[in-house]
Design a protein that fits this description.
Radius of gyration: 46 Å
Organism: Brassica napus (Rape)
Oligomer: single chain
InterPro entries: ARM_PUB, Beta-prop_EMC1_1st, EMC1, EMC1_C, Quinoprotein_ADH-like_sf, WD40/YVTN_repeat-like_dom_sf
Family: Belongs to the EMC1 family.
Helix content: 10-25%
Shape: elongated
Subcellular location: Endoplasmic reticulum membrane
Largest sheet: 6 strands, antiparallel
Number of helices: 20
Keywords: Endoplasmic reticulum, Glycoprotein, Membrane, Signal, Transmembrane, Transmembrane helix
Length: 1256
């Protein structure tokens, strides 16, 4: 039976551990987050397609990324993201194994290992001025054992070793004001030709020795009319450039060191020509010129004469020329027309010879072709094949080969400028949200796999199947709205003017659309703003206000269906867009009203409907806004005045009036940041109680403007000024009245500044790398009884605190939830392009007040590695963080964008209101069934064991031993009676004392316990057969011959540090003292202190022994005083609440005996916890335990107690009376009822309470 019980317990432990092990998330990576890597818009591309090694293309982008892409699949082999101000100027391959990049305007040259992207060397080049940078990697140039790389930048020409990055020589051109345009090396020549302009009117050619850097020869020639634009080399000895009027092409020939030029008017080449533009592709003996929205190909003759050989559309992209044979050079031209892309490869010398002509189907929303790079390869039939790398207008990257798109990359997402959220459509009737498990077999199979994974029995194939099943069951593939709000769309607008809808489930692109309206408008070249407007039916729309790079350019209004991505309508609004202001009004279709401010000081109402106009005119005089003139340091407040007047004005145009102006001193302050409270911000609790129990209210006005200014010198880059030269000032301004509500300054800071919320403002100062501070302000104190008005001056109460932060901060956001109940976290984008989630309690300015529940104040903010929500990932080039609430209060959506994209579903206070998505209900069901089965098995086993014991007890027992002492069950290990002749410590039988009304508490208490010492009569009939001797169990400690020796042995073991020694001592005392409580000798004080120490240890095992021994010792009157002096009375009072029922009954019985002494009664009365402990125990126990508690209360409130005139701190008598009356109504002994009635009568006699009125 015992084995069956053990097996059941092991099964329970195993199932509980299985549930815990199921919470591991090793195979759940990517279920609630995703990360996408990009490189950005490609500027340069160099193919590396040698037979040895992988075929790849090296690219550099506008996002300052250098990367290696696989030509087969488009995957990133490696990449490296440079700093925001480390723009890449050129890229090339040296020695067939190094990638060379020139950046930072020619001041930084790096070499990367081609296979893995590890940096081989880095060289800083001297730079004295800002100038154009050039990178040249000569193929056949060798100096001794070195292969020099030529780099120009900052007025210096450097020759750097390609092997170790050592600077071989440098040439200074700064004194002459010479601007290098081209660095050329003619074929079979050991001289380097450096071409450039001097004061934009003189052409200069330097001949430089590549070994020493010395100038061998110098030629110059003044060209009338000057130069404009870039210089384009068409051969090893000819370049072409436009003059200053951009109407004449100048051909410069520098053959054999002599300079000559030839001018050709563009009008001689093209009729009705305007300004011309030389395109960047380098063609052999030919150049491409853009004139009158056409691209013409101009061939350069031997003497510099030009002739037009072909003409194409201006939307055609042209590649650099590429040698395809020993004497043939080809180039590619690509243009996008409708839903097809046309690719042609022609010979430069013979444009009629077309080597390749392909038409490929492609999405029309990609726009026109922006750039093209070609590469050739040898086919199996020994003919030339071509592949083309194409960069589209929307920044998408494609590889075309053999008439198909081999792969494409959505690099447009590397330039996200603005993000908002939108809901998915509601689930249609009859359509399941997630059809994952279709049949019962699939359901059982899935849950069996989950069970195997929970029990760590799954094979690698099972783990993969579980991962796939979880991906499906998580709803990541379902594009419908869910009740928790986990499935949403992030609407992202890119710098290319393309709109994307990203699904939060897996990051897929639901739809994308290139905004054709701004791309077709000459005045509005690039979108710059996005605003979301929701309409319930028939669809949800996105309202876009788009404008060009110039603020005076007219804007474009576009409506897009958020479900399908189709542009419903678009129109030119006819005025500029300075600011878009959403109004707190909606029309009957629930479309929000907007005001658009233009550069002329007018505002325009949208939508332009009569209903919107009627709604707006009702609150015409209550509309206010502000404008910030950052360069002038002025903030102005405006209000509505009247309708516009004029021929071009309509009824939706209104004039404004200036209400207030705040001017910052330009010599000491410059505006660097402004922020207003988010319109959708939720504040759950507006009240706060401080340490003085004073109630404060957060100042949650939506008209509060946060302004940060710095000294003009501190407006530059970090570290550009010393801390003494810069100061940061923060203002809080009411935008209705222009009143400055608060001002705070901080010396030694220069920004940048990031702020969030209005009620709680965070300022991140990065003056130096070792001094990064965080400020926090909390605004409050509001009178609820006063009328609320925007014109009233609120009584402001501010708190502030400064912190150090170990890392520089790029951006910051704060989590937001549906109701604002969940604790908020600061999402800090660090300089390492990771996101740190910091609990907002760490930046609570009330930390200095040491309020309850607040994290103690520290001088620096902690950086906990586990708090990085990006884990080991990086969001390269991090620019912004967007948060959006889910419908589930505990959860928020976090979206970070930069060169990479990152999304995570975050629960700042854990998911306290939901189960996890992959919670196994099957495992829960199996666990419940197993528990029920184990309970049933245990019940059956227990019944069988009980039946066996009953049958065994029914057998006759000869020479049955007498019933042990204390038949109440306190002493379970009693084996002999007190009057047994075999007892080693036999005591004479005591007569029961008679009771009277004047008897003392000592007499009645002794009677209560001595009545248990009378032996029960047993059958004294002699037995014919002597009982077999019981086998003696060897005791843990030897029992001494005398009781005094036993006391000494036990005292020594109780003083030991070992818990096992203490337990052995308690077992020894139990065997000796409990069966026959001794009256002599008196217990030693050291032994009693040891027992009290064990009792205070509050351990269940030791408490059981200690209470038995203490009660047995206190039966002797001599030991009661020793127990009181050792602190036993105090120990019982203080530990009674933590003891189990049987132990607390014995402890209270001993305490009642100790109260028979004057010292014990005084000790109990003086203890402040006596009455609360006894009341709690009295309500918890029944029977004798309740009787003992009432007796101790009688000692406290009896004669010599609370009613004797002595000032004793006790609980109110009324409360004690109610507790005693309630206890008497339950199960209680007869003696307890008598004592309780006597206590109530005592309280009533002294006039301390009226029991009739209290209902007792």
């Amino acid at each position: 039976m015992a084995m069956e019980i053990k097996a059941s317990l092991l099964l329970l432990i195993f199932l509980s551990s299985a549930i815990v092990s199921f919470s591991l998330y090793e195979d759940q990576v990517g279920l609630m987050d995703w990360h996408q890597r990009y490189i950005g818009k490609v500027k340069h591309a160099v193919f590396h397609t040698q037979k040895a090694g992988r075929k790849r293309v090296i690219v550099s982008t506008e996002e300052n990324v250098v990367a290696s892409l696989d030509l087969r699949h488009g995957e990133i082999f490696w990449r490296y993201v440079l700093g925001t101000k480390d723009a890449i100027d050129g890229v090339d391959i040296a020695l067939g194994k190094y990638v060379i990049t020139l950046s930072s305007q020619g001041s930084m040259l790096r070499a990367w290992n081609l296979p893995d992207g590890q940096m081989v060397w880095k060289t800083s080049l001297h730079s004295a001025q800002s100038s154009k940078s050039l990178l040249s990697v000569p193929i056949n140039l060798k100096v001794d054992k070195d292969y020099p790389i030529l780099a120009f930048g900052g007025g210096y020409l450097h020759a750097v070793s390609a092997i170790d990055g050592e600077i071989l020589w440098k040439k200074d051109f700064t004194a002459e004001g010479f601007e290098v345009q081209r660095v050329l090396q003619p074929h079979e020549s050991s001289i380097i030709y450096v071409l450039g302009f001097l004061h934009s009117s003189k052409a200069v050619v330097y001949q430089i020795d590549p070994r020493t850097g010395e100038v061998v020869a110098q030629k110059s020639m003044v060209v009338p009319g000057g130069f404009s634009g870039v210089i384009l080399s068409v051969s090893s000895d000819k370049v072409v450039v436009l003059d200053s009027t951009r109407s004449i092409l100048v051909t410069i020939n520098f053959l054999d060191g002599d300079i000559s030029f030839h001018k050709t008017p563009v009008s001689d080449l093209v009729e009705d020509s305007g300004n011309a533009e030389i395109l960047s592709p380098r063609l052999s003996n030919m150049l491409a010129v853009k004139v009158n929205k056409r691209t013409i190909f101009v061939r350069v003759g031997g003497e510099g004469k030009l002739e037009v050989v072909d003409s194409l559309s201006d939307e055609t992209a042209i590649s650099d020329s590429l040698p395809v044979a020993d004497d043939q050079v080809a180039f590619a031209s690509v243009h996008h027309e409708g839903s097809k892309i046309h690719l042609m490869v022609k010979l430069v010398d013979d444009l009629d010879t077309v080597l390749l002509r392909e038409s490929i189907e492609m999405d029309q929303h990609r726009g026109r072709v922006d750039k093209v790079f070609i590469n050739n390869y040898i086919k199996t039939d020994r003919s030339n094949g071509f592949r083309a790398l194409i960069m589209m207008e929307d920044h998408s990257l494609l590889l075309l080969q053999q008439g198909a798109i081999v792969w494409s990359r959505e690099e447009r997402l590397a330039s996200v400028t603005d993000v908002t959220t939108a809901e998915l459509p509601v689930e249609k009737d009859g359509v399941s949200v997630a059809k994952v498990e279709h049949t019962l077999v699939d359901w059982l199979k899935g849950h069996m796999l989950k069970l195997k994974g929970s029990l760590l029995l799954a094979s690698p194939e099972d783990v993969a199947a579980i991962q796939e099943m979880r991906m499906k069951s998580s709803g990541r593939s379902t594009l419908t709205r869910d009740h928790n709000g986990f499935r949403k769309l992030f609407i992202a607008l890119t710098r290319a003017g393309k709109l994307f809808a990203l699904y939060t489930g897996d990051g897929r692109i639901v739809w994308s659309m290139l905004l054709n309206s701004p791309s077709k408008s000459e005045a509005c070249e690039r979108p710059s703003g996005i605003s979301l407007s929701l309409i319930i039916t028939p669809w949800t729309r996105i309202l876009l206000f788009l404008c060009g790079s110039d603020s005076s350019a007219p804007g474009v209004l576009s409506f897009v269906d958020v479900y399908t991505g189709k542009e419903i309508s678009s129109s030119d609004i006819g005025h500029s867009v300075v600011r878009v202001m959403p109004l707190p009004f909606t029309d009957s279709t629930e479309q929000r009203l907007h005001l658009i401010a233009d550069t002329e000081g007018h505002v325009h109402l949208y939508p332009k409907t009569s209903e919107a106009l009627r709604i707006f005119q009702r609150d015409f005089q209550n509309v206010y806004w502000y404008t910030v003139e950052g360069d002038d340091g002025i903030i102005r407040g405006h209000g509505m005045k009247s309708s516009c007047a004029g021929e071009t004005a309509d009824e939706y145009c209104f004039t404004t009036k200036e209400l207030w102006t705040v001017v910052f001193p330009s010599e000491s302050e410059k505006i660097i940041s402004t922020l207003i409270r988010k319109p959708n911000e939720v504040v759950h609790t507006q009240a706060k109680v401080n340490t003085d129990q004073d109630l404060l209210y957060k100042y949650v006005s939506r008209n509060l403007l946060f302004v940060a200014t710095v000294s003009p010198k501190g407006a530059g880059d970090i570290g550009s000024v010393t801390p003494e030269e810069s100061a940061l000032v923060v203002y809080l301004i009411d935008t209705i009245t222009g009143r400055i509500l608060h001002r705070l300054s901080h010396q030694g800071c220069q920004g940048p500044v990031h702020a969030y919320e209005v009620t709680v403002v965070e300022i991140y100062d990065q003056s130096r790398a070792e001094n990064k501070n965080v400020w926090k302000l909390v605004l409050g104190k509001h009178n609820l009884t006063a009328p609320i008005s925007s014109y009233s001056r609120p009584e402001m109460f501010t708190k502030s605190q400064s912190y150090f932060f170990a890392q520089s901060v790029k951006t910051i956001a704060v989590t937001s939830t549906a109701k604002g109940i969940t604790s908020k976290q600061l999402l800090i984008g660090t300089i390492g392009d990771q996101i740190l989630a910091l609990d907002k309690r760490f930046v609570n300015p009330s930390q200095a007040e040491k309020e309850e529940g607040i994290i103690p104040l520290t001088d620096s903010l902690p950086i906990i590695p586990q708090s990085y929500i990006t884990h080991s990932l990086k969001v390269e080039g991090l620019r912004g963080i967007v948060t959006a609430p889910a419908k589930l209060e505990s959860t928020t959506h976090v979206f970070a964008y930069g060169v990479d994209l990152f999304y995570k579903r975050l629960a700042p206070s854990k998911t306290y209101d939901s189960l996890t998505d992959d919670f196994s209900y099957a495992l829960l069901l199996i666990t419940i069934v197993a528990l029920v089965a184990a309970i049933y098995i245990t019940w059956v086993v227990s019944k069988k064991k009980e039946l066996t014991m009953m049958r065994a007890n029914q057998k006759p027992k000869p020479n049955a031993p007498p019933r042990p002492l204390f038949s109440c069950g306190f002493f379970r290990r009693c084996t002999q009676s007190v009057l047994s002749p075999t007892s080693p410590h036999q005591q004479p039988r005591r007569k029961p004392a008679t009771t009277s009304s004047s008897s003392s508490s000592s007499t009645s208490t002794s009677q209560s316990f001595t009545q248990w010492r009378f032996p029960h009569h047993v059958d004294q009939t002699p037995s014919t057969t002597p009982p077999p001797p019981a086998p003696a169990r060897p005791p843990p400690l030897p029992v001494a011959t005398t009781l005094q020796e036993t006391y000494q042995i036990a005292e020594l073991h109780l003083a030991s540090v070992s818990e096992s020694d203490k337990l052995l001592a308690l077992q020894l005392l139990e065997r000796v003292v409990v069966p026959d409580p001794p009256s002599d000798p008196t217990c030693p004080p050291g032994l009693m202190r040891g027992l009290v120490s064990c009792l205070r240890g509050n351990r269940i095992v030791t408490a059981k022994y200690v209470t038995k021994i203490l009660l047995a010792l206190c039966l002797a009157e001599g030991n009661r005083r020793v127990a009181v002096e050792a602190g036993a009375a105090r120990a019982v009072v203080e530990t009674a609440a933590g003891l189990e029922n049987s132990a607390v009954e014995r402890a209270l019985a001993a305490l009642e005996l100790m109260c028979t002494t004057a010292e014990g009664a005084a000790e109990v009365r003086a203890h402040a916890m006596t009455v609360p402990a006894m009341v709690a125990v009295m309500a918890r126990l029944a029977g004798r335990g309740r009787e003992y508690a009432i007796s101790i209360l009688a000692v406290v409130y009896g004669r010599g107690g609370a009613f004797s005139g002595e000032e004793i701190t006790v609980a109110p008598a009324e409360e004690v009376a109610r507790a005693v009356a309630l206890a008497l109504e339950g199960e209680c002994t007869a003696r307890g009822r008598r004592k309780g009635a006597h206590l109530l009568k005592t309280l009533e006699e002294y006039g301390r309470l009226d029991l009739s009125q209290n209902g007792t």
